[in-house]
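To illustrate the input format used throughout this study, we show a single complete record. The first block contains the structure-token representation of the backbone; no residue identities are included at this stage. The design step must infer an amino acid for every position from geometry alone.
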């Protein structure tokens, strides 16, 4: 049972600059159980414009969940996370850090900045798809998310 009872698709924002990881995430979510709309931006500045509905993103739906890489061009994922969690209009959107870094300082800093969870991307293709499906299962079917 989805936490989305309205029948509308779940809006997911993927902030990721690796085309390969974008493709894998898209495929894993397409195979999933929950109807979703995946929007993708490739850098931190675009992510904040998307969330604030600026420029080309003015008519985009507010995401229900954000999948955020830390190592991004233009604006680092840590800065993006900090701005999201400092913004009263955005801070309730769950942010899942999905990154290659397994460094203790990145994990600690992300939680200090109020990330909702931290996942290190597996290098193995099948494990990567499994991780994305696990994120979907947990965040979109188990967890009750706030209404927009």
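Output of the design step:
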């Amino acid at each position: 049972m989805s936490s989305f009872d309205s029948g509308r698709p779940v809006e997911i924002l993927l902030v990721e600059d690796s085309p390969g990881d974008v493709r894998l995430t898209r495929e894993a979510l397409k195979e999933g159980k929950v109807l979703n709309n995946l929007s993708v931006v490739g850098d931190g500045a675009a992510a904040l414009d998307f969330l604030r509905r600026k420029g080309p993103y003015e008519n985009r739906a507010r995401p229900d969940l954000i999948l955020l890489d830390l190592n991004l061009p233009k604006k680092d994922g840590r800065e993006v996370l900090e701005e999201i969690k400092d913004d009263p209009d955005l801070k309730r959107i769950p942010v899942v850090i999905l990154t290659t870094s397994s460094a203790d300082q990145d994990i600690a800093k992300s939680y200090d900045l109020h990330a909702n969870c931290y996942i290190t991307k597996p290098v193995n293709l099948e494990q990567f798809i499994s991780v994305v499906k696990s994120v979907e299962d947990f965040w979109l079917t188990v967890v009750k998310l706030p209404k927009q």
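Structural context for interpreting the output: The CA atoms of residues 44 and 79 lie 8 Å apart. The mean pLDDT is 88.
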